[in-house]
Amino acid sequence: LAVLLYWALFIYGVPGVKPVLGEVRPGTPAAMAMLHEQDILVAIDGIAVPSWQDARWVLLDRVLQGKEARLDVQSAQGDTALRTLRLADLTAADLDGDFMAKLGLQPYQPPVYPVIGKLVADGAGQRGGLREGDRIVRVEGAAMPFWRDWVEVVRAHPQQPLRVEIERAGQLQQLIITPDRIEENHAAIGRIGAAPLIDRAAFDAMLIEVSYPPLRAVEEALRKTWETSVISLKMMAKMVVGEVSLKNLSGPITIADYAGQSAQMGLGAYIGFLALISISLGILNLLPIPLLDGGHLLYYAVELFKGSPVPDALWDAGQRVGIALLLALMSFALYNDISRLILG
User: Fold this and answer.
1) Where are the alpha helices (DSSP H) in the chain?
2) 19-109: CATH homologous superfamily?
3) What is d(CA 153, CA 229) in angstroms, rounded to the nearest whole number?
């Protein structure tokens, strides 16, 4: 079923984000590998990565193996290079969160400039004289090259007047704006009720849709199903030995939540989710646990080597152990679901 779903998905088209690197923080493995902002990931260990999601998936497999990854990259100027990314320093705790960020890898986002796109009626910005289309040039004499710089200043000055220099219709003007005071996470921050002017074309240019002709889609569907199965088994094996936290287990609540989110994202995302669930259920059913098909295969293998049927007493004991293991697994998954709901 998973192969069929992936085949349909690859023909339909998989939406994604182009594998372009954002800011590379100093001291991270990405920085030590001499990767730079706006570098494009072309391939990892010879495997083409047309989207950010593909790059993340291949790197996750390499992280689980504890191997280095060889990256074929293309710079913003069009130059190509081969980089080696060290992965061995990642810990089990890193896999619980965003391991790509730990590596210093994050997708590129086009710059958002400090231009007012929308104002809240009677907000501090509107009361201070701001208008849509105004560009923030300086605040208290400090230049504001990007929207995030302006946001940081506003948040740091609740109910404190700010001298703001703006550009309006080619003319510089001075305004005094006093951010409103609000509480966020038990701390006071400033807010003026303004949103930036977003260049939609620049953000849309970072999106990509990966699709294949029917025959090539079969090959890609088989590869994707195999890779997903192998990575899932590796994750489960590392959970058993304690190298990966059991927090990665998900139960019915999280599955239902992801199902709803994927359905809202579109048909492609929903088909991909169904394929992943199909693989997960298949792997779970093949685990060597009595009551599951994998447990029956284990008994048949024992009978084959033993040359006689498994004693009824051992069979019954195995069934009880299987029930206990499944209940424990379900309990862990449900506990994780409830923890995510409470703690976020």
Assistant:
1) 2-12, 29-32, 52-65, 92-96, 99-102, 124-127, 147-155, 200-204, 214-240, 252-265, 267-285, 293-306, 312-343
2) PDZ domain (2.30.42.10)
3) 48
Work out the average pLDDT over 110-138. Answer: 93
- CA neighbours closer than 13 Å in the CB half-sphere of residue 135: 14
- 273 contacts 5 by C-beta, under 8 angstroms: no
| Backbone torsion region of residue 319, taken as left when φ is above 0, otherwise alpha when ψ lies between -120 and 50, otherwise beta | alpha
For the stretch 230-288, pLDDT in tens is 777 777 776 666 666 666 666 666 666 666 766 676 776 777 777 777 777 777 777 77
pTM: 0.66
Q: Average pLDDT in the 174-189 region? A: 91
Residue ranges, CATH 2.30.42.10, the chain? 19-109, 116-198
CA 231 to chain centre: 16
242 vs 45, residue with greater confidence: 45
> Rounded to an integer, what is the distance from CA 290 to the centroid of its chain?
35
Domain 116-198 sits in CATH at 2.30.42.10
For residue 310, what are the contacts with CB-CB under 8 A and spacing of at least 6?
299, 302, 303, 318
d(CA 108, CA 51): 12
* Identity of the amino acid at 99: F
Angstrom CA distances, 291 to 251, 304, 323, stand at 19, 19, 7
Per the listing, tokens 């590796």 go with 234
